[in-house]
Design goal:
Structural class: alpha+beta
Radius of gyration: 25 Å
GO cellular component, one term: cytoplasm
CATH superfamily of the largest domain: Elongation factor Ts, dimerisation domain
GO molecular function: translation elongation factor activity
Function: Associates with the EF-Tu.GDP complex and induces the exchange of GDP to GTP. It remains bound to the aminoacyl-tRNA.EF-Tu.GTP complex up to the GTP hydrolysis stage on the ribosome.
Distance between the termini: 39 Å
Helix content: 40-55%
Order of helices and strands: HHHEEHHHEEEHHHEEHEH
CATH topology of the largest domain: Tetrahydropterin Synthase, Chain A
Keywords: Cytoplasm, Elongation factor, Protein biosynthesis
Largest sheet: 3 strands, antiparallel
Domain Translation elongation factor EFTs/EF1B dimerisation: 70-271
Number of strands: 8
Strand order of the largest sheet: 1-2-3
Oligomer: single chain
Number of domains: 3
Length: 291
C-alpha cells in the first residue's frame, strides 16, 4: 500500500508521534496502519530505554486535595520546555487524580496504578518518554489523610506545598501558611525533627567561625547556642517569622488559633538532583573534530 500524506496524518493523530516517525513506521509495515502503531510503540520503547539513564531535573510539581485525602507529586522531564507541552500536562493531571482517588501511599505502589487507558503510571511515563522525546518519570510522592488539608501550587509549576492541620484554623489562614512554606522553604516543622547529625555539624562550623577567646565558658557556650538556635529557626517552620505578620512566629500564630501542623510537604522541582552542566561550545567543537 502506498504511504500517502493522509495516512501519515491519520497515524500522527492516533499516536502523537512525529511526522517522520509515522512515515518510517508506515513504510516499514507496507502502509498497514495497525501494524504501524505497533511498530511505533516497539521502536518508541526502545528509544525510551536509551533515555532511562539521562538526568531529568526539570518538570512539574503538583499538590491536589479532595477534602479527605491530599497528595503531592513531582514529575520530571529533561527540560523546562516540556512543562508547556499539553500532552505532558494532561498526563500529570491524570496521574495526580488517579493517585488521589486510590488508597496507595508509596511511590512503588503508585507506579503500578492503572490509568484510564489501561497503562500503569510507570508504563505511561515510558510511553511519554518515547512520544515527547525526553525522559519522563514520577520521582516522588507524598500522601496524607485528614479533615483540615491545605495545598498550594506556585504559578511557575515548580513549587508545591501540602499541609495537614489539626484545629479550627480557617481555610484562608491554612492557605497563607502553605504560601509561607513555599516562600521560606522550612525543612522541618519543629526543632525536635532536626537530626542530631545536622545540629552537630552546624555547631562544629559555628565553633570554627566564632571567636569566643577570653570569654567565660558559660558566656561562650551561650553565644554558640544562640547562633545554633538562630540557624535552626531559619529551617524550622514554627520558629520562622510569619511572612504575613513578621511580629510573630508561625508557631505563635498557630497557637493563638488553637491549631497545629501534623504533616508538611514541600516539593521543589529538581531539588536534590545533581544537574549535568553541559558546555555547548565544547560539544560542537568535539563534533567538528570528529568529522
Amino acid at each position: 500500500m502506498a504511504v500517502t500524506t493522509d495516512l501519515i496524518k491519520k497515524l500522527r493523530e492516533m499516536t502523537s508521534a512525529g511526522m517522520m516517525d509515522c512515515k518510517k513506521a508506515l513504510e516499514a509495515t507496507n502502509g498497514d496502519i495497525d501494524e504501524a502503531v505497533v511498530w511505533l510503540r516497539e521502536n518508541g520503547l526502545a528509544k525510551a530505554a536509551k533515555k532511562a539513564d539521562r538526568v531529568a531535573a526539570e518538570g512539574v510539581s503538583l499538590a491536589v486535595s479532595n477534602g479527605k485525602r491530599a497528595i503531592i507529586i513531582e514529575v520530571n522531564s529533561e527540560t523546562d520546555f516540556v512543562s508547556k507541552n499539553e500532552k505532558f500536562m494532561s498526563l500529570i493531571e491524570e496521574i495526580s487524580n488517579t493517585i488521589l482517588n486510590s488508597n496507595v501511599n508509596t511511590l512503588e505502589d503508585a507506579l503500578n496504578l492503572r490509568l484510564k487507558n489501561g497503562l500503569t503510571i510507570n508504563e505511561a511515563c515510558i510511553e511519554a518518554t518515547a512520544t515527547i522525546g525526553e525522559k519522563i518519570s514520577l520521582r516522588r510522592l507524598g500522601c496524607v489523610e485528614g479533615s483540615n488539608l491545605a495545598v498550594y501550587n506556585h504559578s511557575n509549576k515548580r513549587i508545591s506545598v501540602l499541609i495537614n492541620f489539626e484545629g479550627p484554623i480557617s481555610q484562608d489562614d491554612a492557605y497563607n501558611i502553605c504560601m509561607h512554606v513555599a516562600a521560606m522553604s522550612p525543612k522541618y516543622v519543629e526543632n525536635s525533627e532536626v537530626p542530631q547529625d545536622f545540629k552537630d555539624a552546624e555547631m562544629h562550623i559555628i565553633k570554627e567561625t566564632t571567636d569566643v577567646t577570653g570569654k567565660p565558658e558559660n558566656v561562650a557556650q551561650n553565644i554558640l547556642n544562640g547562633k545554633l538556635n538562630k540557624k535552626l529557626a531559619e529551617i524550622t517552620l514554627l520558629e520562622q517569622s510569619y511572612v504575613i505578620d513578621e511580629k510573630q512566629t508561625v508557631g505563635n500564630f498557630l497557637k493563638n488559633n488553637k491549631s497545629k501542623v501534623l504533616n508538611m510537604f514541600r516539593f521543589e522541582v529538581g531539588e536534590g538532583i545533581e544537574k549535568v552542566v553541559s558546555d555547548f561550545a565544547a560539544e560542537v567543537a568535539a563534533q567538528l573534530k570528529g568529522n
